[in-house]
Write a structure and sequence with these properties.
Length: 282
Amino acid sequence: MGAKIIDGKVIAKRIRGEIAEEVRELKKEKGITPKLCVVLAGDDPASQVYVRGKERACAEVGIESDVRRLPPTVKQQELIGLVRNLNKDKSIHGLLVQLPLPKGIDPKPVLDEISAEKDVDGLHPLNMGKLLKGENPTFVSCTPQGIMELLLSTGVEIKGKEAVVVGRSNIVGKPIALLLLQKHATVTICHSRTQDLGEVIRRADILVASVGSPGIVHGDMVKEGAVVIDVGVNRVGDKLVGDVDFDSAKDRASYITPVPGGVGPMTIAMLLKNTLAAARKA
Ligand code: NAP
């Protein structure tokens, strides 16, 4: 039995179409054009590609984008000063700082400076704290939000299921664990010190892998009929692969996301959704 593929590209395209329509309405009714500002410090090649992708996606749905490029020599205080000024700029609705920041800069004080009302990446302590408390945060981080949309598309009930999240990053692992908990899954979070990863993963009815290690989840770890969401993006030679060994996992899973074309397109769609929501609130 082969798994059904969860096509993130198709689902994200539908969502982007809905966003484009809502952006048009907001412009017509309130004269507001949503605007996303991205601070890009340094010359990390992957970040350059991601930011260009964000600019393109914004343009496609009628959201304005403004990329502030800074040299790798930028100082922490300069970055904090820029974020403070962008917080005050009323024409900007969504604000994010692209990670990683250049060597020597601690991302925490920079990210914490972003106003909670513009925090479209959902990393502000207030937004993360509300998520932890089960309250409605202003913004939920884009990748976990996108994963919840992918799960919804399968029609599989989350309530009462065993969910295993591999990885405990602030941007994916922790928030997706909390969202699954909100939907009444029994959630286990694994990380680099987890003993016998395979044994824990084998319990999962819903598995989310966000590690950054190609093929760390092999098919023989996947429970028969599990829903498998692969967040990992790893370059192996000239190919992009996930954290799940797709070929072996697809024979056991009921649903599985491909890499590329699964979670990635959803992340950008949710960023557009958060920017639109920020503009509505402004
Ligand atoms: P991250 O900050 O890179 O951290 C990796 C996590 O994996 C950590 O929690 C680490 O544990 C855990 N880990 C490392 N080795 C492990 C092992 N052998 N067994 C179990 N857990 C292990 O995580 P991230 O930012 O969530 O990124 C993970 C991957 O997802 C990357 O490939 C990234 O490119 C990708 N990603 C994709 C998207 C998308 O939109 N498609 C979005 C975000 C991230 P410790 O905490 O103990 O170190």
